[in-house]
TrEMBL record:
NCBIfam families: PRK07394.1. GO terms for molecular function: anthranilate phosphoribosyltransferase activity. One of its GO terms (cellular component) is cytosol. Residues 6-69 form the Glycosyl transferase family 3 N-terminal domain. This is Anthranilate phosphoribosyltransferase.
C-alpha cells in the first residue's frame, strides 16, 4: 500500500465540508502511481470512484494529463511534411451504441485533403461497451492494433493518418480499464481521454466531443493551463466529435493568434439542407457496408452525414474558406474516389512489426 496515495485519497474523499481538491502536481503524482500500479487495487478503485463523485477540476485534469505525457506514447509531429497542423480527434473510448459514427470517414477526408490526423482508443470498453473506432477500421480493412509505435509514426508520415491503440501502445493506461466495470461508472479518465493528445508538440489542433455543458468549460480551463490554444469542442453525437443532423450543433472554437481567441459557434444543418434524423446504428456489419457505400458516394443517409461532417472539418482545419465550400469539396473528394484511394493507401501499408 502507498501511504502517499492514501493521503491523496483522504484529501479528495473527506466529503463536501472537509474534502479538498488536489493540486496539479498531486494529481499528476496520483495518476503516475495508478499507471505504475504503485497504488493498490483497492486504492485505485476508491480513487476513481471518489473522483467520479467529486468531479475533477481543471488543475487536477491538467495534472493527470501531465502523467499521461510522461508515461504514455508520443508521436513526433513537429517536422511532418504537411501544410496543416495535426488534428487529434478525441472521441469516447467506450464507443457508440445508438447513432452511426462517421469519425473514420471524417479522418479519411481530412487526410485526403492534406490534413494529418491522429486518433486514439481501445477495444470495447465499460461501461457502455459501444462500438469502438478500432473495430470500424478493422471492418474497413485497416488493423491499427498490430502496429508498433514506430510503425504508427511511419504511417502518419506516409499517409497522414494514424491510430494510437491503448492495449498495445499504452499498456499502463489499458490495465486501468477493468476498474470501469468494477466501479460501474465512467471514471475521470474518460474525461481525460477526450482531450489527451499522444503527440509531442503542442502545435496541433485538438477536437474534443462532450455531452454535458460544464464539461466544455472544464476543457477550456484545462487547455489553457496546459498551453494549448488551438482546439475545438463539439456537443456531438453520444459525446463524440460527430456533428448531429437532428439538432443545432453547439461548437466552441479556440484559435491561436486571434483576439478574442474563443468563439461560440452554432451550426444549423437546416441552413445547408442537411437536417434530418440522426442515422441509427443497427450493427457493426451494417455500418461497415454503409461506409463502403459512402466511399463510392452512395449509401444515403450516411452519405449526407459524412458530407456534413467532412465539410465542417475541411473548413475548420483551414482547407476551405467557408462551410459551403467545405461541403462541396467533401462531396467532390468522395465522388472522385480520392477518399477510397486514401483508404487503400493506408490498407496497403506494411503492417509488419
Amino acid at each position: 500500500m502507498s501511504n502517499i496515495f492514501r493521503e491523496y485519497l483522504k484529501k479528495i474523499g473527506s466529503g463536501v465540508h472537509t474534502g479538498e481538491d488536489l493540486s496539479r502536481e498531486e494529481a499528476a503524482d496520483a495518476t503516475r502511481m495508478m499507471l505504475l500500479e504503485e497504488a493498490t487495487p483497492a486504492q485505485i478503485g476508491a480513487f476513481l470512484m471518489v473522483h467520479r463523485i467529486k468531479r475533477p477540476t481543471a488543475p487536477e485534469l491538467a495534472g493527470m494529463l501531465d502523467a499521461y505525457d510522461q508515461l504514455g506514447p508520443k508521436l513526433q509531429t513537429d517536422n511532418l511534411a504537411f501544410d496543416y497542423p495535426v488534428t487529434v480527434l478525441g472521441t469516447p473510448y467506450d464507443g457508440r451504441s445508438r447513432t452511426a459514427p462517421v469519425t473514420t470517414i471524417t479522418a479519411l477526408l481530412l487526410a485526403t485533403a492534406g490534413v494529418p490526423v491522429v486518433m486514439h482508443g481501445g477495444d470495447r470498453m465499460p461501461t457502455k461497451y459501444g462500438l469502438p473506432l478500432i473495430t470500424i477500421w478493422q471492418g474497413l480493412g485497416v488493423d491499427f492494433s498490430v502496429l508498433s509505435l514506430t510503425k504508427s509514426q511511419q504511417l502518419l508520415e506516409k499517409t497522414g493518418l494514424t491510430f494510437i491503440y491503448l492495449p498495445h501502445h499504452f499498456s499502463q493506461a489499458n490495465q486501468l480499464v477493468p476498474y470501469r466495470n468494477q466501479i460501474g461508472k465512467r471514471p475521470p479518465l474518460s474525461t481525460l481521454e477526450l482531450i489527451w493528445s499522444p503527440c509531442l508538440s503542442k502545435n496541433i489542433h485538438v477536437v474534443s466531443g462532450f455531452v454535458h455543458p460544464p464539461t466544455e468549460n472544464l476543457f477550456r480551463d484545462t487547455f489553457e493551463l496546459r498551453g494549448f490554444s488551438h482546439f475545438t469542442t463539439i456537443k456531438g453525437l453520444e459525446g463524440s466529435c460527430d456533428l448531429p443532423q437532428s439538432r443545432t450543433a453547439i461548437i466552441g472554437l479556440n484559435q491561436p493568434n486571434i483576439n478574442p481567441s474563443w468563439e461560440r459557434f452554432f451550426l444549423h444543418p437546416s441552413d445547408y439542407d442537411l437536417a434530418g434524423k440522426d442515422v441509427t446504428l443497427d450493427s457493426a456489419a451494417q455500418l461497415i457496408k454503409q461506409m463502403q457505400g459512402v466511399l463510392i458516394a452512395q449509401s444515403e443517409p450516411l452519405l449526407s452525414l459524412a458530407i456534413y461532417n467532412g465539410g465542417f472539418y475541411l473548413w475548420r482545419c483551414g482547407v476551405c474558406a467557408d462551410m459551403k465550400t467545405g461541403l462541396t469539396q467533401a462531396e467532390a473528394l468522395l465522388t472522385s474516389g480520392k477518399v477510397a484511394n486514401k483508404l487503400r493507401e493506408i490498407s496497403a501499408f506494411n503492417y509488419e512489426l
